[in-house]
Fold:
Amino acid sequence: MHTIDVLMTAPLLPIVVEQLESAFTLHRLWEQPDPQAFIAEVGPRIRGVATSTYHGRIDDAFLAHFPALEIVASFGVGYDNVDVAAAAARGVMVTNTPGVLDAEVADFTVGLLLATLRQLPQAERFLRDGQWLKGAFPLSPTLRGRRIGIVGLGNIGKAVARRLQGFDVPIAYHGRHRQDVPFDYYPTLIGLAEASDILVVIVPGGAGTRHLIDHEVLAALGADGVLINVARGSVVDEAALIESLQAGTILSAGLDVYADEPRVPQALLDLPHVVLLPHVGSGSVRTRDAMGQLLVDNVVQWFRDGTPVTGVPETAGLVGRSV
Ligand code: 8YV
Structure:
């Protein structure tokens, strides 16, 4: 019997479950016939919560059930699934899994960009459907001659930009601050959209970036413009995007994220030239394992040393509060 009780909100990878189970008393919320009754029963003992983007929001009302809670360890670099202000106010450390997925998501972003421009999924479907026997696949748009604008030059944005440097296309960016990088900086998003043919969105989700990409930005991107979103669905006004695609005021989009995952609006599914992927940017076995391991390391190190490996900045002041 372990002395520290940890609650997992929904199934994480087997390597996460196994390791947490060997070090702690692990409670599986998703296996409980009556989750609310279970929370009422074990809530006072729970000192750690392991969760992920898809497991529902960890808000103040949820946190209130766990008076002894010290750490919420979330799977994923984005932590918009956790109300970090509420957690910090309750003295609860929040951790995410940054760094280990940067290269993977950057590789994937370049892949989605090329797939969208050159219509690779559509061409593959064309071949599989036997259509090649009847004629050639239609010519596609291209990356050649296009200017790329990166919205959010964080670690993943920089990794995307570095990769695209090899493609001989101009690269610019917008973010809160100018950075010491060899790319043009646009202090306004509209300015970047006007100067770009492709916008690659890779900013954190949450209230601060909600509907950053709206009608106005899409209009500025223009009729030849392509939107690539590998960030969060919340960053794009999805209704505005659908209207722009339907009206042809932008050319296309490559999306890995949506406003209400896993539900994707029928209006997007009805647009055959748009490339739609099921939030798989970090989804390789190797990278997901690395993210899972980091989650485990965060929890183990917190209860051992009082400092996680990768706490989010908003809860940095809580380091050392445990043990
Ligand atoms: C995660 C992600 O795989 O890291 C993130 O923020 O969006 C993905 O890499 C996803 O959150 C897991 O559910």
Notes: The pocket of 2-keto-D-gluconic acid is lined by residues 52-54, 75-78, 101, 281-282 (CB under 6 Å). The mean pLDDT is 97. The longest strand covers residues 46-52. The chain has two domains: 5-99+285-316, 102-276.
